[in-house]
Specification:
The complex is a heterodimer of chains A (225) and B (216).
Chain A (H helix, E strand, L loop, with lengths): L15 H30 L4 H16 L2 H15 L5 H26 L3 H9 L4 H31 L11 H12 L2 H32 L8
Chain B lengths: L2 H4 L2 H33 L4 H16 L2 H16 L5 H26 L3 H9 L4 H31 L11 H12 L3 H28 L5
Helix pairs in contact in B: 2-3, 2-5, 2-7, 2-8, 3-5, 4-5, 5-7, 6-7, 7-9, 8-9
Classes of the chains: A mainly alpha (225), B mainly alpha (216).
């Protein structure tokens, strides 16, 4: 009978904090970069130029339909053959950013197109400057639409960062495989890392719910529920 | 396409078939499990609801790669099951897909207003009857388009089965890459094949969405 023994992993916990930090660092960088890509993509997709709209649309469709793992392999192995050597961490970062950027583009586009044209015109005719228009009219409404999918996507990025383990980045999933290989305590290392990911994801999830409550409490009278 | 790679066309073709098969299998199994979990999620008893929420949140939060690893090595060692890569991949994909499907099912059923339950019950229908004849036909229309999204996501996750040595599309590509020594071209072909499959499915999804567009 299998003896469940979590203590068997104790000698291997030394590199774990570093691994968690690396997972967080990779995820945070990817989130920040993909927000930038998403804003740019959304501006392309809503632009008046047909070419920009087409490029934005093609980017979203291509990256949403290819598995992240294949994108990581393409950048890590594929580009190396063409002569561009990118190390493991940066390959994962680029792949995650490109992948999440496509979803970000769709989220931001959804937010931008939800504001009726009339509001821009009304704000302009009240004498608002461009900054005031976005700061007081557009952004508060857009944020209310996008915070929920944004939270889900952030969880998706943390989950996606686990794929960096296939190209040798020493993050949490790599630690799990190594600890399992060295102790044969695969079930224990799987459960331990599972708990770590659940905690990370639920922290984001709870943050999203709290933000949602706070936003609703600040909603204008007519929007209050 | 260079001739060395083109010579392996049947490997790619087989990979496409296996990827379609395992993701379809996982979608069906995940749909059945997800339907049960989704119904438990809106059950009248708080404990059952919470159990369903924990199930959904756990399998949405644990990366599929970690699940593949846990199912293949973890279960094999802990339960002395000696699972094949195929069984382990199917279990892992089903767990992820079922958590997504549970949310789709819940959204579908909750989209039908409470008043319809009350109206149907007050007509003397039993709970199963209300569900079968009133709620389900309306809920399924709301559920179909997002189910297509779950299928695409499951199909993409199935690429992770390559990690535990199951030869689907991604692993086929990696094998061809090893035997020909050509990386970029082979991986690009794999990417294009995934794109063609998933984009076609998403077009079907858009068509379904239009077909089932329904105003309450």
């Amino acid at each position: 009978m299998y003896e469940f023994n979590l203590a068997g992993l104790l000698p291997y916990t030394g590199p774990l904090p570093r691994a968690i930090v690396l997972t967080l660092w990779l995820s945070t960088l990817s989130i920040l970069l993909s927000v930038a890509v998403g804003v740019l993509g959304a501006l392309c997709r809503t632009s008046t130029s047909l070419i920009l709209r087409w490029i934005g649309g093609a980017y979203v469709e291509v990256l949403r339909n290819i598995p992240l793992l294949v994108v990581i392999y393409l950048i890590f192995f594929g580009l190396a053959q063409v002569g561009l050597r990118v190390d493991g961490f940066n390959s994962a970062l680029i792949a995650l950013t490109l992948n999440a950027g496509a979803y970000m583009t769709e989220i931001f586009r959804g937010g931008l197109t939800a504001i009726p044209r009339g509001q821009y015109e009304a704000a302009r005719s009240q004498g608002m400057t461009g900054y005031q228009l976005y700061r007081y009219v557009v952004f508060p409404q857009v944020f209310r639409i996008i915070y929920a999918p944004l939270g889900n996507l952030m969880i998706g990025i943390v989950i996606g960062s686990s794929l960096a383990s296939v190209i040798g980045v020493e993050e949490v999933t790599t630690w799990m495989r190594r600890a399992g290989d060295e102790t044969f305590r695969y079930m224990e290392s799987f459960l331990a890392v599972g708990v770590i990911y659940v905690v990370l994801a639920q922290t984001i999830n709870i943050g999203r719910i709290v933000t949602g409550r706070w936003l609703l409490s600040r909603a204008p009278i007519g929007h209050r529920r | 396409m260079s001739p060395q790679v083109a010579a392996y066309w049947y490997v790619f073709l087989k990979g496409v078939g296996i990827t379609l098969w395992i993701s379809w299998l996982a979608l069906i199994l995940g749909g059945v499990v997800g339907l049960v979990i989704g119904l438990l999620r809106i059950a009248p008893w708080a404990i059952v609801r919470w159990a369903a929420i924990v199930y959904i949140e756990v399998f949405r939060s644990v990366p599929p790669l970690v699940l593949f690893f846990g199912c293949f090595y973890g279960l094999s060692f802990a339960m002395k099951l000696d699972l094949s890569p195929f069984s382990a991949a199917t279990i892992a994909l089903t767990l992820t897909a079922s958590a997504l499907m549970a949310e789709v099912v819940r959204a579908g059923i909750e989209s039908v207003t409470r008043g319809q339950w009350e109206a149907a019950l007050s007509q003397g229908m039993t709970y199963p009857q209300v569900f079968r004849y009133v709620i389900w036909p309306q809920a399924i229309r709301v559920m179909l388009p997002p189910s297509v999204g779950v299928y695409i996501s499951t199909l993409k996750d199935s690429s992770l089965a390559s990690i535990i040595g199951y030869v689907e599309l991604t692993k086929s590509g990696l094998l061809v890459r090893e035997s020909t020594g050509i990386s970029f071209e082979v991986l690009l072909i794999i990417a294009i094949l995934y794109f063609i499959i998933n984009y076609s499915i998403s077009l079907v999804g858009t068509a379904l969405e239009r077909r089932f567009k329904y105003v309450h």
